[in-house]
């Protein structure tokens, strides 16, 4: 049998390493470098230090974009963390025809985000279905400008994001619910626990890990929202651009021959740092026991060192 050469594993891994370096690592490093320059297309970049980051505090558009992204996170995270769980519990029951409802609830996930956003825009336009229904039932005398008001536009975009993400996270919870023992629910029911009590005492602890994962994915996705707000506002970011998200602002500042690539890179770096926060929080929570043990070991070692030092002084 022919022996395997020592470099064979490295040859097998090399294409993946090249791919990651060219399309992931190098663009990231290049963005970090550009963030400290005044780079623009068709002209050499000059180092400006922290000038781009100082400019962020004076840029009103950045304040609007940051507040829009934070509102998106605050609203989307609880909705897309608990609603898919409730939906998964609803379709987890083994009754005839339940597979049809599981498939139906998943349809929005496979639909194109742009197409769905265009349909959503038609629904909430001045002469759209929603305004026509409100007028028909006498709930509004004149059309409500859902897509011309900053907060109404953001609300419509959040509704679209939640509606489109329900099915995806429902599947995650369905897989997790399969690992929650039915005997636990039966034991809790025998002890007199109602459905609501069983939900908080049995179901939620059983899906704690997937729930943390879903929360992080939703938080990062909400920070990086683009398609919903871009299509619903026709690329303008709402009245005065005040409904822009961080990604929309980056695209707006960096596009074109006069695009401020360096400033857009600085915003991208800030967005990257913001997305690290939920990841760090989840990492600390998931490794809290390990961190506590490490801190306890360190305190014990420090106390032992102090004790040995005291004994040496006494002698």
Explained architecture:
- The protein has 315 residues and is mainly α.
- It has one domain: MetI-like (MetI-like fold), CATH 1.10.3720.
- The protein has 14 helices and no strands.
- It is globular and about 85 Å long.
Short descriptors:
MetI-like fold; 315 residues; 0% strand; 73% helix; globular; 14 helices; mainly alpha
What is the molecular shape? Answer: globular
Please count the beta strands (DSSP E, at least 2 residues each).
0
The amount of beta strand, in percent, is under 5%
Q: Level of helix content?
A: over 70%
Enumerate how many helices there are, as a single number.
14
CATH fold field value: MetI-like fold
- Please identify which CATH superfamily we are dealing with: MetI-like
The CATH level-2 architecture is identified as: Orthogonal Bundle
Radius of gyration: 26 Å
In the CATH scheme, the class would be Mainly Alpha
Oligomer type: single chain
Distance between the termini: 68 Å
What are the segments in which pLDDT stays under 50 over at least 5 consecutive residues?
none
Order of helices and strands: HHHHHHHHHHHHHH
Summed up, what is this model?
By secondary structure, the protein is an all-alpha fold.
How are the SSEs placed, and which strands pair?
Layout: H1 8-34, H2 51-56, H3 60-91, H4 98-110, H5 113-124, H6 129-136, H7 150-177, H8 182-190, H9 195-206, H10 208-223, H11 227-232, H12 246-254, H13 261-286, H14 288-314
Helix pairs in contact: 1-13, 3-7, 3-10, 3-12, 4-7, 5-7, 8-9, 10-13, 12-13
């Amino acid at each position: 049998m022919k022996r395997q050469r020592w470099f064979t594993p490295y040859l097998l891994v090399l294409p993946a390493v090249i791919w990651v370096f060219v399309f992931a690592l190098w663009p990231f490093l290049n963005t970090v470098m550009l963030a400290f320059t005044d780079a623009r297309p068709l002209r050499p970049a000059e180092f400006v230090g922290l000038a781009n980051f100082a400019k962020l505090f004076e840029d009103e558009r950045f304040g609007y974009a940051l507040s829009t992204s934070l509102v998106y996170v605050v609203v989307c995270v609880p909705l897309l963390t608990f609603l898919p769980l409730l939906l998964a519990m609803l379709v987890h029951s083994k009754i005839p025809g339940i597979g049809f409802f599981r498939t139906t609830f998943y349809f929005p996930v496979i639909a194109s985000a742009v197409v769905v956003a265009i349909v959503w825009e038609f629904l909430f336009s001045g002469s759209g279905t929603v305004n026509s229904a409100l007028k028909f039932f006498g709930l509004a005398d004149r059309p409500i400008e859902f897509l011309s008001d900053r907060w109404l536009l953001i609300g419509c975009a959040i509704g679209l994001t939640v509606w489109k993400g329900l099915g995806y996270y429902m599947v995650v919870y369905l897989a997790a619910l399969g690992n929650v023992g039915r005997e636990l629910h039966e034991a809790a029911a025998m002890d007199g626990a109602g459905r609501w009590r069983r939900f908080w005492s049995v179901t939620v602890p059983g899906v704690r890990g997937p729930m943390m994962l879903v929360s992080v994915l939703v938080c990062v996705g909400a920070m990086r929202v683009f398609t919903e707000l871009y299509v619903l506002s026709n690329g303008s970011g709402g009245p005065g651009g005040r409904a822009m998200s961080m990604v929309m602002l980056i695209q707006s500042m960096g596009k074109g021959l006069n695009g401020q690539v360096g400033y857009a890179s600085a915003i991208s770096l800030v967005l990257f740092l913001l997305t690290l926060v939920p990841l760090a929080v989840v990492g600390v929570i998931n490794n809290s026991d390990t961190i506590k043990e490490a801190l306890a070991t360190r305190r014990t070692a420090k106390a032992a060192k102090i004790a040995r030092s005291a004994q040496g002084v006494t002698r």
